[in-house]
Input
Amino acid sequence: MNVAHAEFVVSNTKVDLCPKTNLPEYAFIGRSNVGKSTLINMLCNKKKLAKTSSRPGKTQLINHFLINKKWYLVDLPGYGYARASKTQKKTFQKFIIDYFTKRKELVSAFLLIDLRHNPQPIDMDFLRWLGENFIPFSIVFTKADKINEKDLERKVSDYLLKLKEEWESLPQYFVTSSEKKLGQESILNYIKQTNEDIKNF
Output
């Protein structure tokens, strides 16, 4: 799938204020500084569609982007931002949970994980929460260009082995590099196929 049209629609902190539409939505979320905004810009072929910053925690709202006028890409705040106050964290947590549990248009979530690091408890906890709440999701490993190929394979394998300790079946996963556009085609084709499956259901 080629992204020919991508536009920002709305930002808010309440699910009730999300676009009134029947279009499918795909939500992107991950720990702060995982490269989420950069990945979104890479997928959409627009350098400044999602705001990027050298300071983690830039995304603090539910951001809707209309893609090809057929589906929404939803940019959610990163979790685990150390500099966020307790009040901010509670606010983020509430509207993230509200979005995932109440938004009927949500088709699937993409959970971003920085491949340079070993499995982090905060990521594993969020994976577990998605599963416990029956929310479909895929894993997107980011920053693959920051490590060599041998380490990349080992890191992916380590994560999959860790998941197998708790999961009977493993989720779909993608290995990406925003710099090299690795994973762009795979993720977009996955979304395209999912949208077609929904239509034919």
